[in-house]
Amino acid sequence: MKQLDSLYARLPEWLQDLAITAQGALYYRQRYSGAFQEEYALLKATEMSSPLQLELLQVARLKRMLAHAAATVPFYQACLSKAKCDSLRAGDWSAFFDLPVTEKSTLRANHLAFLSGGKPNSRWIGWNTSGTTGSPMQLFYEPDAVARQYAYVERYREQAGVSRFLRRAKFTGKMIAPGDHPSRFWRYDWANKALLLSSVHLNSETIPRYLEALERFEPAYLTGYPSAIYLLAQFALRRGRKTLRIPAILTSAETLLADQRDTIEAAFGGKVFDQYGQTEMQSFWFQCRYRRMHTHPLFGVTEIVTPDGRPARPGEVGDVLLTGLVNRAMPLIRYRVGDRASWADSDRCPCGRSMPMIESIEGRREDYLFSRQRGWVGRMDPALKGVEGVVECQFVQEIPEAVRVLCVPSPDFRLEDQLHLESNLRSRLGSEMRIDFQIVDQIPRGANGKFRAVISRLPHETQTQNDLEEVL
Ligand SMILES: [Zn+2]
Asked: Which of 404, 405, 422, 454 is 20 to 30 A distant from 23 in Cα terms?
C-alpha cells in the first residue's frame, strides 16, 4: 500500500486523476452490483411500510443474523443459545434484551473472535479504522454487505433529490493531493462523476480556490464532514458573491451542529441532509427532508439504554447499542458503539416514513475540545485520518488557548506525521490554537482501564458561557 502511495505521489496530476478514476471504477462495481439491486428494490418497496410490517422484516433478519453468529462467530458461539434466538418474535423482544452487551473494548482486545469462522476470508473487504479510541483495528465486510449498504446510500441520496448518476463533489481525508505544493487540491474520479476535494489542504488561504473549483464543476451535491463544508460555507458567505449553488449537501461522520447546518444552507442555497453510520457497519440513520433523523430498521437494530441498562424513554439521552443486519463477516450484537443519543417523542413524520426517529445525537460529551475561534469541537477522530506513524493520541485541554497532544509514535514515525496531524488539528480547532506535542511511550488509562481520546479540564464557566446544550 505504501509503495502504491509513493508511486501515486510521483505521477503528474492528470495521471493521478486517471489512477483515481480507475480505482473509482472498481469501487463502482463493488458498490452497485451483487446484492445492490435486490436490496435497493426491497428498500424502495418498503420505504412507507407500517411499523408492524417493518418490525416483521427486521425480526426475520435479526433471527437469521443471531443464528449465523451463534453458529459461526467464536465470541457468540460461547454466549448465544439457539433456543433464545428462536424465541424472539415481533412484539416480544425480551429474549433479545437479555443478550449481553458487546463492549468496544472487548472487540478491540480480540477482534478475530468476532469474525465469522474466526479468521479473515480472502473474499472479504478489509478496512483499517483510524483508531478513534485506541489503536487502529481492521474490520471486514462481505462484498454483498458493501453492495447492500450502497442501496441505503442511494435511497438516502434519492430522497435528497440526487443520485449516483449526478455530478457530486466530495471531501475526502485521503491523501489525494500529495507533495508540498500541489498545484490543485482536488482530483477527478470520472467513473463516479466526482470531484474529490482534499480536506487536508483546506484552510483560509486555499478556500477561495476550492470555491472556484466547485463553481466550475457545478455539482448537484456535495458530501463530507460538516466541519469541512462549514469552513467553506463561512468563507462563501463572507465573500458575499452567491454564485455557487449546490442543491443538496449530504453530511456524515461528525455530529452536525445546528449552526453549521444553517450556515451551509445559507451559503449554498441548498438543503443539508445528515447521515449517521459507522465503519463497523451496524446502523444507517438518515435525515429526511423534514430534518427528522430516521433509523433504518432493515440495516440494523438501534437501542438507546440508560446506565442501568433500561431502554431510554423518548428525550432521555442514553448509550446507543447497535446490532447490524447486513454484514455477516463480522456480526456485532448489542454493540455499545460509544455514541449517545435520544429518541424523538413522536412516531409520525410528515414524510410518511414510520421508521423510528432520533431526537438528537450527542456524540461523546467528554470528547469535546474548546476553541475560541470554533467553539466546542467534537469528534477528534477525523484529525487522525491519513496520519501514519502514530499508534494512538490523546488530546488534553487545560486552558481554552491550548491543547496538549500526547502521541505514541510507531517505529516509522516521521516529523511529517506530526506536521500532518498538526495541520489536521488546526483545520478543526482554528489557526490560533496553541498545539503542544508530547511524544510518550504510552497513554495512561482511566480508572476502569478505559482509553479516553479527549481529556478536558476546562473550568465549568467556559462550558456554560458557550452553551454546549444549545449547539447540540
Ligand atoms: Zn421523515
From this structure: 422
